[in-house]
Structure formats: C-alpha cells, structure tokens
Amino acid sequence: MADSMEEVHRQVEAESAFVTDLMAEIGRVIVGQKRMVERLLIGLVTGGHVLLEGVPGLAKTLTIKSLASSVKASFQRIQFTPDMLPADILGTLIFNQKTSEFVPRKGPIFANFVLADEINRAPAKVQSALLEAMQEKQVTIGDRTYPLEEPFLVLATQNPVEQEGTYPLPEAQVDRFMLKVTIGYPTKAEERLILDRMTAEEIPEIRDVITPERIEKARGVVRKIYLDDKLKGYIIDLVSATRSPSDYGLPIDNLIEYGASPRASIYLAQAAKAHAFLRRRGYVIPEDIKAVAEDVFRHRVILTYEAEAEEIGPEQVIQQIFDAVEVP
C-alpha cells in the first residue's frame, strides 16, 4: 500500500538532510552558481543525466568534480577530442597470451560519475557509443553485456561559442539528457570572492559527505513524492503546447519545428519531484514545475529557421508557453 502523504513528508525531511551538507561542501570551492548546483543535485536524486552549456572558465568542470568528490563514489573524466574511438570510452577486448583468450578491459564509462568534457568535440561514433550506457545503464563489449553500477550519472559540458572542429549532438542523444542547463557569468562580488579563494595559499578540498547507498535511498523517496492529478494535467498541457501551440491560443506555429518528446513529460514530473525534495517537501506545487521546465524543454523544443532569423531562442518560446497555459 502506498505511503500516506504525512509519512512521505517525514521520509523526505529525513532523507533530504544531506542536501544542506552537500551544498555547503560544494560551496567551499564553488562561488555562486546555486542554480547549476541544484540542477546537478536534481540529476543525482533522479538518476537523470545533465548537460551544462557555457563559455569556458565558468567552473562547469570544477563543479562536477566537486559534486563527485562530495559523494564517496568512483569518478572518471573523459576529455572528448575529434580523434577518439568508441573503445576509448567503453573499453575493448585484449588478447591474453598466457590464457590464449580475449579478456575485457573496461573503459572509463564504468564509474558512478562520468564527466564528458566538451562532449560536442567527439565524432558521431563516439557520441552514439554513449547512448546505450546513458539509456540502458549497460555496456556491450564483444559478445557480453555488463551492467553499470548505480548510481550512474553522465554529466556533460559543451562550449556554445567555438564551433570549429565540433560535432553538434543529434536530437536523439540530446533527448537522453534530463536537463540542459545554461551557465552565465558571475556577478562582480562573486568574481572577487572567486579571485580571493583561488589565489589563496591553500585552495579548499572537497570531503565526501554522502555514500551511494544514501543516494539510492533518496531516489526511492523522491519517487514517492505526491504529484496531484491536476499538476499531471498541467505538465501534459505544457508539453502539448510545444507541439500544437495554436490549440492554446499561441500564434507561434511558425517558430517551432518539433515540439518536446514524451520524455519531456516524464522528466518534467521527475525533476519537479526532485525540486520539491530539495525544498524538503513531500508534495509538488506548480512552482516546482515552473522552476525546472525551462531546463527540461530547452533542448527538446526545436525551432525553425524563421525563429533563428528573427533571433528568437528557445527560452523566449518556452516563456510564451508558460504565459499561455493556465496554472491549476
């Protein structure tokens, strides 16, 4: 029998206690960027992969490494380059001369946290090699399939400015990321704090404050968080409005080539529950959905050439959808 809302709320209060410690530990190294850190935590407690996009030097890689260091789990960083091969990520079969047999040598994908640095610098074969791992949580080497140990999370970065020598991610792969988060510049006050902290005699080091077992327990609690039927309808309306905006009185059919996929509905519900979990609530409110919807939709709403010609970005289209769809 499903737990009562009061019982779920008590479980959320107990299991979300680590969030404060985790945020504080990461905050010893990372200045500001609270929104980015929260989105990474949403991925952590739901098992959803996260794509970070921003110009170089905004601590994308450092934040991911700090998160991995704060969890007592294995971590691998893969620097994507144009000359990479799928075996560089997944692993390959090596011939053992002593036994005259081929034995698997597992690649860096076999870790709890995988940082795919500058993922758009790898060719299509390497990008597609991640698909099975990201979606199925397993890797095939030779004729054997190996499950990936939970928690398994791909945290990828890409640079939107320098496009020479890059390979844009296909929609099929981008869709496998729960969230696409854009990173902005710090404020002047934050930048001064960064300067003071990173030029000091000793740079703070991250300590592990949580175990993978605790994360698995938290994920179980997140799945129990209450999502009212009216809010489920609100999620469906938001997703439907990206496909048929005219049904919601929006004259933007000429701006949208393709609307959000069904994964958007699933991920939006999961991310909203995780957002409520971070706020230590056992139920979802409309603000939870609104807070994460842009990051869920950003890479799933494909705009037309007309929108690009008018310099209209996905954020502007998504905001119009928010304004048009009635909140329950």
Taken from the alpha-carbon principal axes, the silhouette is globular
- List the uncertain runs: none
Helix percent band:
40-55%
Beta content: 15-25%
SS summary, helix count: 14
Number of domains: 2
Based on the coordinates given, report the CATH architecture of the largest domain.
3-Layer(aba) Sandwich
Strand order of the largest sheet: 2-5-8-1-9
Please give the structural blueprint.
Layout: H1 5-15, H2 17-27, H3 34-46, E1 49-53, H4 60-70, E2 75-79, H5 87-90, E3 91-96, E4 101-106, E5 113-117, H6 124-136, E6 138-141, E7 144-147, E8 153-158, H7 171-174, E9 177-182, H8 188-198, H9 212-224, H10 229-243, E10 256-258, H11 262-278, H12 286-297, E11 302-303, H13 305-309, H14 314-324
Parallel strand pairs: 1-8, 1-9, 2-5, 5-8
Antiparallel strand pairs: 3-4, 6-7, 10-11
Helix pairs in contact: 1-9, 3-11, 10-11, 11-12
What features would you highlight for this structure?
single chain, 328 residues, alpha/beta, Rossmann fold, Helicase, Ruva Protein, domain 3, five-stranded parallel beta sheet, two-stranded antiparallel sheet
Describe this structure in words.
- With 328 residues, the chain is of the alpha/beta class.
- The protein folds into 2 domains: 5-215, Rossmann fold (3-Layer(aba) Sandwich), CATH 3.40.50; 226-324, Magnesium chelatase subunit I, C-Terminal domain (Helicase, Ruva Protein, domain 3, Orthogonal Bundle).
- The chain has 14 helices and 11 strands.
- It has a 5-stranded parallel β-sheet.
- Strand 3 (91-96) and strand 4 (101-106) form a beta hairpin.
- Helix 10 (229-243) packs across helix 11 (262-278) and helix 11 crosses helix 12 (286-297).
- The longest helix has 17 residues, at 262-278.
- The chain is globular and about 70 Å long.
- 36% of the residues are buried.
